[in-house]
Input
Amino acid sequence: MRQVYKDILESGATVITERKSYFDSISIGFWVKTGSSNEPSDINGISHFIEHMLFKGTKKRSYLDIDKEIDIMGGALNAFTGNELTCFYTKVLAKNYERAIDLLTDIMFNSLFSASEIEKEKSVVLQEIMGAQDDPYDYVHDLFHEDFYGSSLYGNPILGNAETVQSFDRDKIIKYFNEYYVPQNIIVSVAGNIDHNKVVASIDSFIKKFYKENNQNGFNNSGLKSGKNYDGSDTLNSGNKKIPKNYGEFFHSKDLEQIHFILGFDGIKKTDKEYYVMEILNTILGGSVSSRLFQEVREKKGLAYSIYSSSVFHRTDGYILIYAGVAKDKFKTAKDVILNIVNELSVNKISADDILNAKKHVADSFLLGLESSSNLMTRNALNEIYYKKYISKNQVLKKIEAVNDGLIFDLTNKIFSDRNKVLITVLGKEHS
Output
């Protein structure tokens, strides 16, 4: 029996639901198709700042009312900002659906953006930026993006910087909000013990109500205000245009006990046919505790406590990175061991047993994720945003099963064979 449904509302918002009648919970996510890669450098960080401001009070609720209401429901209410997307989400018991959708829609479309709250929140975000810079793990990842992407907007930090955050005012925030946070640019994904028609009716009603009440923010009565279109207006995110990258070794001095470093290689974009080949390759390389990096660098040689690889996929490109934190006198040895492991993958085929085990890991992790309403909500939203369609469980499992040694060998050669196309970001002191 079909359980996933999709509707496009009159306002332009897309609503996707997946019913799981045996779940007690529901997860609701408002996914806005904008993030740091849509921001001009002079307002870098504004998507993340808006994420904060939407919890700072509406015409109907103060920020204290918002906090109390979600607490009373025993649920979770949160948000995150990325390079390409921003998501506002809640997870509650199914019986609290009406209250939860009222709360989340109120936050999304009826926020005040009070000038006094904007000034107060600047201090909060500046503390968040300083905290990220004090944490070498977070900081080296920000530096890696800056080094790898250079002048591209993907190189800008999601949080912004002190100068841009200090420059935000209500006019700048409202202008950006009205360009991107419009129904045509929003996917509402709901998963759990819910009825699709009820969800569509309630979201449609709330959006129309809030838009009608917010004419002063530039909305019209129909809710059909034209904003920037994520799929075409931003040249950085359109077509198959490759984003230029930097390669080489970049050193950043900071007085730390350890050296933190990242090796980055060109990867593939989210919609490439090798997506699951990359996921399995990453599992073999450093995405699991039985991976080559974890076993060789940590278990056998004891060079690092934290060592892993991660595959990242964007709309038009992607990368695979390897992170490690090591003692200062172990940096060169650890780097050489990692590069030898990468080189070994690009010149020798991986054993059938290793591939089979990695496929089992990826498939079973995927299946475990289907037990969570939050994961279902996220999965359906991302499928709609990147693929414009629902992808079934069986389709995913077939794609994983189809991965073989030839496909992995082709991908490793594509990614790792050019030794000049690697970027190494190093954070620490006395590492040369």
Observations:
- The radius of gyration is 23 Å.
